[in-house]
Amino acid sequence: MSLETIRVSPGFENYLPQEYYDLVRDSQFTKPRKVSEMGSFKEVIEEHPMCAGCAMTLFIRTMYVALPSVENTVFIGTAGCGRLVLTQGAAPFIYGNYGDTNAVASGLKRGLGIRFQDTPKDVIVAAGDGGLADIGFSMVMHSWFRKEKFTTVMLDNEVYGNTGGQESGMTQKGMVLKMAPNGKKFEKMDMIGLAKTAGVAYIARVVPTNPARVASAIQKAVLIAREIGPTYVQAYTSCNIEYAIPTPKVMDDAREVEKARYGFQEYFTDEAKEYWTRIESEKRQVKGPATEEE
Ligand SMILES: Cc1ncc(C[n+]2csc(CCOP(=O)(O)OP(=O)(O)O)c2C)c(N)n1
Ligand code: SF4
Q1: What is the H or E stretch that residue 89 is in?
Q2: Mean pLDDT for the chain?
Q3: Which of 58, 98, 125, 155 to mutate to test the pocket of ligand 1 (most atoms within 8 A of CB)?
Q4: Phi then psi for 126, rounded to 5 degrees?
């Protein structure tokens, strides 16, 4: 969706709400923004129906701000809590069947490459741990093995939040949930390890305690996916409802989990590292679009 598409048509100036004008005149559609500027410009997402305090919302909000080119980005999501935000954002969103996201994204990315040969189009799958590690697992793995050039973002709240608390492959062993009353019987799946095995070009594990780091990981993931191959960002986005985390304690929980078992990790293949080093050095020479690392 380009700025051209959302620009106000002559004659409609007096009828559109202020929020719309803000989006057209003072948002990421007009110039790149940094997460440190959040609150001072019109964001891609401002309203959503998620639970109060849900960390997934903060993560998605940060992800939007980090996009290298919002007007050339298409999100693929599916059933699950994340789509409640993603469907409200001013960026194109396609609702894949639960489990099919990475197959839909593979076809879309290839199709966009044929249709728009001169403009890079970024495709991002953003879905829950149930959607990606369980029901969509084979599609995720095959998109990685086939080296499809798009980004997969796992919103890892370690539970099926949207359907009331079933365990997922990403739930920790022993965890008792509303619909897993006997406690989970096997270990949390090592999706980072599986991504490495499949040859994913860039992998990051993040917690939304540090928005600048989240933004940096998203930018790397999107830009490396454009040129090199599949990328994967796994984000701890706690479900305060199913894990009974009091709303004011959501970020305390995130900090504790980060310290105990979800520390920041980043991995590049050699080819991705070489590419990113080149991008960084070019950025230093010619001051280009703002990134969180500047
Ligand atoms: C094929 C299919 N199976 C099951 C469902 C029901 N369903 C909807 S949301 C959901 C769980 C979502 O959990 P997760 O993907 O972890 O996302 P979260 O809601 O936790 O963010 C399920 C099983 C569905 N919509 N489609
Ligand atoms: S159920 Fe959990 S993951 Fe879903 S919106 Fe509520 S807090 Fe967030």
Answers
A1: none
A2: 94
A3: 98
A4: -130, 110
What domains sit in the chain, N to C, each tagged with a CATH number?
49-285 (3.40.50.970)
Cβ-Cβ contacts under 8 Å for 212 (sequence gap 6 or more): 34, 35, 36, 292
| Index of the ligand 1 atom closest to the CA of residue 131 | 15
Q: State both tokens at 59.
A: 């993560």
Check if the beta carbon of residue 180 is closer than 8 Å to that of residue 164.
Answer: no
Question: CB within 6 Å of ligand 1 — which residues?
Answer: 79-82, 98-99, 127-131, 135, 155, 157, 159-163, 168
How many beta carbons lie within 10 A of that of residue 86, not counting itself?
26
The pTM of the full predicted model, rounded to 2 decimals, is: 0.96
- By percentage, how much of the chain surpasses pLDDT 90? 86
Per-residue pLDDT at 288 exceeds 80: no
What are the backbone angles phi and psi of residue 24, rounded to the nearest 5°?
Answer: -75, -30
Please tell me what DSSP assigns to residue 209. T
Strand partners, 214: none
> 15-70 pLDDT, tens per residue?
988 888 898 889 998 899 999 999 999 999 988 999 999 999 999 999 999 999 99
Instruction: Give the pLDDT score at 4.
Output: 82
Count of other CB atoms within 10 angstroms of residue 179: 12
